[in-house]
Amino acid sequence: MKTIESLLEKATAIGGFHELAKEEATMLSTLSELAVAYEDNTLKLMPIEPNTLKQAIESKMAKLGLTQAKLAELMGIGAPKLSHILSGKRDPDVSFLKAAHEKLNIDAEFLLTHSKLFTIFIFSVSECQKNEASNF
């Protein structure tokens, strides 16, 4: 890392990467790629995974360069519905989750486990199991 930092400082001081000697530029490139690989594969710093449904949707919006209006159009839902879901004023329904999976390629398990529908489903199953157990 010290070598990367010193080469970056040198490049900055002399007017840019294109001013480095060919060997220095190659070394900087190689060391930078190795550092990225180490951070990604060993430290697992990037990418930062979303923790909420809102973060996942907003991350996809940013990656695709979409506004909320364009995202709503892509997902086949109304812009107000999308706005209400992202602001927490409305819970996502099955059609929203299906569109997020199909149109944005967001993992279905993530969508289900980060939605209120999943919590309601698990609670319902749990209640059914309690009722069945009490009938025996």
TrEMBL record:
Pfam family, one: HTH_3
Domain of life per record: Bacteria
Coiled-coil segments: none
Position of the signal peptide: none
Domain HTH cro/C1-type: 57-111
GO MF entry, a single one: DNA binding
InterPro entries listed in its UniProt record: Cro/C1-type_HTH, Lambda_DNA-bd_dom_sf
Cross-referenced Gene3D superfamilies: lambda repressor-like DNA-binding domains (1.10.260.40)
CDD domains named in the record: HTH_XRE
Name listed for the protein in its UniProt record: Helix-turn-helix
